[in-house]
Amino acid sequence: MDHVKLFTDTSLACSKLITGRYSTSFTLGIRTLDEKLHLPVYAVYGFVRWADEIVDTFHDHDKTALLADFRRQTHEALETGLSFNPVLHAFQHVVRQYGIDHEFIEAFLHSMALDLEDQNYHPGLYKEYIYGSAEVVGLMCLRIFCNGDAAMFERLREPARRLGSAFQKVNFLRDIRSDYEDRGRVYFPGVVYQHFNDTTKSEIEADIKADFEAAYEGIQQLPRSAKLGVYLAYVYYLKLFYKIKKLSAARILGERVRVPDNTKLLLLLGSYFRYRLSRI
């Protein structure tokens, strides 16, 4: 028995378990990808989920020290090709296999560090944060989807970034109350939570709409192995976005918008039929 392979396969299985426990929606999206893409994408999710947990969950611990140690362990895993943290071992394996850029990893960890301190999110820092927290995650997945096709990656780089940006901004808008009340954060530049109104909300929504439109052009050009899964994530977030658009700013501050499970199933079925009919 090849015990090195067993160790790596077990580490990848741990990332799959983490994804299933933390995000049913993301797990559903991964399952609609070609099977060969499942474990690599689970590995990416496991990595970003663990870093995010450090930042947002363990308030009774020194989160700065925890994140610094996680960063150190990440670098060590990437350098040596081994980690006894199964999440990091799975992740470094996928980084090496698909040539995921280390710059993406550094940008992601930098954005996680930004969440450890109170920030004034001026336009430059806002773009920097979104790039590191969301866009590079899409770019990591794009490396996997393109599987060594550098020309395809460069062609789809910008749409992938715009899709990650749209997802993150929708999250910011949906969670504006909890981000402020629980974490003291308002990510949108120049927005004062107490003065958040319908005009401000409409301006933010116009920006998100432009991101969605640019992203869809890229989804149409994805390899067939990845197209359905990415399209499903796109329509799920678009549905969430449309629900948010229908509500007033006051309603957004008073409730957390979600897409019910039965609606998610309908979105899956609709996406599948569009995919089968080559209408994506």
TrEMBL record:
Key words of the record: Transferase
Superkingdom, natural source: Bacteria
GO molecular function, one term: geranylgeranyl diphosphate synthase activity
InterPro entries: Isoprenoid_synthase_dom_sf, Squ/phyt_synthse, Squalene/phytoene_synthase_CS, Trans_IPPS_bact-type, Trans_IPPS_HH
GO BP term, pick one: carotenoid biosynthetic process
Protein name: Phytoene synthase
Organism of origin: Hymenobacter glacialis
Lineage of source species: Bacteria, Pseudomonadati, Bacteroidota, Cytophagia, Cytophagales
